[in-house]
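Handout for the seminar on molecular recognition.
Each group receives one record of this type.
Step one: identify the two inputs.
Step two: read the structure output and locate the region that could contact LTDHYY67.
Step three: write two sentences on what you found, then compare them with the reference statements printed after the record.
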Amino acid sequence: MFLGNSVIHKGLLCVRNLSIASKMHSIAQYQTLKIDSPKEFVFNVQLNRPDKANAMNTPMWLEIGKCFNELHENPDCRAIVLSAEGKYFTSGIDLFDIMTLGEELANHDDIARKIKVLRKFIKTYQDCITAIEKCDKPVLAAIHNACIGGGVDLVSTTDMRYCTKDAWFQLKETEIGMAADVGTLQRMQKIIGSTSTFNELAFTARKFNSSEAKNIGFVSQVYDTKESLLENVMNIASDIANKSPVGIQMTKRSVIYSRDHTVQEGLDHIADWNQILLQSEDFIKAAMAAATKDKKPTFSKL
Ligand SMILES: CC/C=C\C=C\CC(=O)SCCNC(=O)CCNC(=O)[C@H](O)C(C)(C)COP(=O)(O)OP(=O)(O)OC[C@H]1O[C@@H](n2cnc3c(N)ncnc32)[C@H](O)[C@@H]1OP(=O)(O)O
């Protein structure tokens, strides 16, 4: 059969476009998150249920997991800012959503069946935010106004936290009759380094403000407004994104591994990795750049 030139041309264009599209990492659509890339290699993930004070419902928990798993794989992403739309960062778990769990439990009479439902629920929520820690790209939380309950669990998984002057935090779980179960008890006391201060916050469920958060080391810096918070945090993320992805991703992995192991185990872990990674082109490029005072060496995507 004869194919005219224009048909062949269109066909070739189509193949070329398909191959470009397959090289670009498309960003999935999310219902409860807003995602964009305001700077090269920097992604901004925003909690996006502003009408509900960004209460974390099941779709949001699941989407957080999915999103950070995707960004872990995305070679166009080297640093991530986690922020929120609207008046509040987050009011924690969606209290209406949790009531539907009660309905599901009511379907079972037997304790073994009930605990199976609850365990699956808790483990799923844990895994969703642990995805932030498992994501090799550094995650910087930019927190404004209220960060309550599940919100503290969420930001405790990030690598760095920054907030506005009006930010306040509350480990509210004991006030609603539960022990926090998705990471605050495990991670936050290690972040702030004082078990006594941490226990006070966890047992009393009292609110603490931005200056206390800075004093106890929970946040690195406090900014006057949400605009200056985002501007500064984006700049820090961009600075990270300009560095070698090999160096940055391995640093995150080593820091988290070392937090959970002895010093010797941490040293062995990084020796095991660096005997491989020091042979990467990034090491040569960065060393050359340092020697020639090149401020912005170009690193391939990873
Ligand atoms: C496996 C378990 C995993 C995790 C467990 C985590 C535990 C926790 O998260 S404990 C913390 C639970 N959260 C709370 O107790 C906070 C409750 N909310 C508030 O205190 C207030 O809403 C506020 C955040 C201080 C804001 O107050 P205000 O400015 O007066 O706004 P509201 O009118 O109260 O809220 C606006 C709108 O949002 C809805 N909403 C707020 N928070 C939640 C929530 N946590 N769950 C569900 N919905 C929430 C509120 O109902 C309003 O909705 P309307 O439709 O406009 O009425």
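Reference statements: The pocket of LTDHYY67 is lined by residues 52-53, 55, 88, 91-96, 122, 125, 146, 148-150, 172-173, 176, 181-182 (CB under 6 Å). The chain has twelve helices and nine strands.
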